[in-house]
Amino acid sequence: MGKVIAVAGKGGTGKTTLCGLTIRYLLEKGLTPVLALDADPNANLNEVLGVKVESTLGDIREDVIDKAPPGMSKDEYMELKLEESLVEEEGFDLLVMGRPEGPGCYCFANALFRRYMDKLIKSYKYVIMDNEAGLEHLSRRTTRDVDILLIVSDPTQRGLMAARKIKTLVEELSIGVEETFLVLNRTSARQVEALESKIGELGFDLIGHIPPDPLIEEFDLKGIPLVKLPQSSLALRAVFGIMEKLVAEIVTAR
């Protein structure tokens, strides 16, 4: 069964960048195949990864409800459309959730989707899930339980309080998250030291911090996928360090 690493955080904290660089790490270390799952309605993980997306799972839900062809069951049609929407790249595949559900009833479509995802995840060594801040897809259980949840925050007490709200929501929903870690993004070592007592007070386990990196701004301005950052990138090196700890954690848990 694939190991699921989900990433959450309030808007603008850099969770999509973390997902992309995490996938880069897994590809370089040969920990493949990887499923990248973009569960943020404002989907842009594909841009970080440098791949094109033709359809989303939100489109598929509409199709299953309204346009299933005669002679084909909704189960068969859902699986066919999901397979068509899977963007296949070397070492990883990408699925984009797309827009939130509309006013109709999506219970049946979501049940089919969960069943398909349970089967699909078995084909991958790792699943990297880029979540929206509200964790809507997790709360609906449209994916299986999560092995590791990374909550991304900026280096401020307000940012940490927002991260704590996400952690509290996860605990209240009882959605099956095995371990939760905090990642501080665009944060210096001095800032980490200043926030150390607050982090402990809020009950977070800090897995690492990512320093400010001018290369990320440069790549974004030029429209270059962040997975192409050079080895000299401060952010890339920091994420690789975080992933070394997480992979060791996963191996130990086995």
UniProtKB/TrEMBL annotation:
SUPFAM superfamilies from the UniProt entry: P-loop containing nucleoside triphosphate hydrolases
Using the record's annotation, list all stretches that form the CobQ/CobB/MinD/ParA nucleotide binding domain.
5-225
Task: Note the InterPro entries from the entry.
Answer: CobQ/CobB/MinD/ParA_Nub-bd_dom, CooC, P-loop_NTPase, ParA/MinD_ATPase
Cite a GO CC annotation: cytosol
A Gene Ontology biological process noted in the UniProt record is: negative regulation of cell division
Q: Which domain of life is it from?
A: Bacteria
Q: Name one GO molecular function term.
A: ATP binding
**Pfam families this protein is in?**
CbiA (PF01656)
What Gene3D superfamilies does its record include?
A: P-loop containing nucleotide triphosphate hydrolases (3.40.50.300)
Name by which UniProt lists this protein: CO dehydrogenase maturation factor
